[in-house]
Design a protein that fits this description.
With 283 residues, this protein is an alpha/beta fold. Helices cover 41% and strands 20% of the residues.
Length: 283
C-alpha cells in the first residue's frame, strides 16, 4: 500500500530528527513525506534541509503563519499546505506531529488494518509519555476507540468523504464523528506505542483555553452534552477550571453565533452518538 505522510513543524529542532529517523526505520516506508516548516525561528529548517538532501522521500514546504501556538487551526492550516503538494496516488495518508517517535512497524500494521477491512477509515496507535522517573507510560485521555491527532492515518476514501480536516480546535474529534456518520470505522491498535516527546499543551498559548468549548459548540453538541463532556475532561485532567473554561467558550460561541463545523444532519448524528455513549457508560 502507498502511504503519504504530512508533518507540520513549528520550532521543533529538539525533536524533529528523532521523528524523521523513526520514519526512516519503518518496515513499510512511505512513498512521500512532506515536512511543512511553519514559520520556525529555530533550527527546524536546517534539519529538514539535511534530511531532504539525504533522503528522496522527504520534501520541504515553507509557510508563514502566526508564531502563537494555538491548537487546531495552526497545525491544520500547515497540514493543508502540505496536502496541496501531494497527488492522489496513495492508499492512506498520515498526519504526523514533529515530536513523535513511531514504532518501527507502525505503518505496516496500519496498512494491514486498512487492507484487511475496507470499512476502516481512520487508524492509529496510542501515545506514551515519560513520567518524572523517565518511565514511558500510556497517556490517552479519550476513549480507546479514539486516535490521537499526533499520529493519525486516514484511508484515501475516508479522507475525501469527510472533506479533509477542519481548521479548528477539535478537528481530531470532528473527523472521527464524520467518519462514523459516513459509515466508516475507527481502528486502534494497542501494540502501536508511539512515544510523544512533548506532553500535550506545553506549547499552547493561554488564549487557547476557551477553544475546546467553542469546538463543542461548532460540533453541535448542545448544552447538556457539552456540560457532561466538560465535567469528564476536568475530572480526567484533575483541573476543575477546564470545566468552566469549556462552558465559557461554548456560551461565548453561542452568543456570537460562530459558524458550525458540521451540518444539521451531521450534528443530529453526533448528538445521538454522544448520548448513546453516555448511556452505555452509565449502564
Amino acid at each position: 500500500m502507498r502511504c503519504y505522510i504530512i508533518i507540520p513543524a513549528h520550532n521543533e529542532e529538539a525533536f524533529l530528527a528523532d521523528t524523521l529517523d523513526s520514519v526512516l526505520r519503518q518496515t513499510l516506508l512511505p512513498k512521500k513525506v512532506v515536512i511543512v516548516n511553519d514559520h520556525s525561528t529555530d533550527g527546524t529548517e536546517a534539519i529538514i534541509n539535511e534530511y531532504a538532501t539525504r533522503h528522496s522521500i522527504f520534501q520541504k514546504i515553507n509557510t508563514t503563519s502566526s508564531t502563537i501556538h494555538m491548537p487546531g487551526s495552526k497545525v491544520v492550516n500547515a497540514f493543508n499546505k502540505g496536502r496541496e503538494q501531494l497527488d492522489d496516488d496513495y492508499n492512506f495518508l498520515v498526519k504526523l506531529d514533529a515530536d513523535i517517535i513511531l514504532p518501527d512497524h507502525y505503518l505496516e500494521k496500519i496498512a494491514y488494518a486498512f487492507n484487511g477491512n475496507p470499512k476502516v477509515g481512520i487508524a492509529g496507535g496510542f501515545a506514551y509519555e515519560q513520567d518524572a522517573e523517565g518511565v514511558w507510560k500510556r497517556n490517552h485521555p479519550m476513549n480507546d476507540d479514539h486516535v490521537r491527532g499526533a499520529f493519525k492515518a486516514y484511508s484515501k476514501n475516508c479522507f475525501k468523504t469527510i472533506g479533509g480536516l477542519k481548521s479548528a480546535m477539535g478537528w481530531d474529534t470532528v473527523d472521527e464523528l464524520l467518519a462514523r456518520f459516513h459509515g466508516y470505522e475507527i481502528h486502534t491498535d494497542e501494540s502501536l506505542k508511539a512515544k510523544h516527546l512533548r506532553p500535550v499543551g506545553k506549547a499552547y498559548n493561554k488564549r487557547a483555553k476557551l477553544l475546546q468549548g467553542k469546538a463543542m459548540y461548532g460540533m453541535r453538541y448542545g448544552y447538556w452534552i457539552t456540560m457532561i463532556a466538560s465535567l469528564k475532561m476536568a475530572w480526567k485532567q484533575r483541573k476543575m477550571n477546564a470545566f468552566f473554561d469549556n462552558m465559557e467558550g461554548y456560551l461565548q460561541a453561542e452568543r456570537e453565533q460562530e459558524p458550525y463545523l458540521v451540518s444539521e444532519e451531521e450534528g443530529k448524528f453526533i448528538r445521538n452518538w454522544r448520548w448513546k455513549r453516555i448511556k452505555q457508560k452509565f449502564g
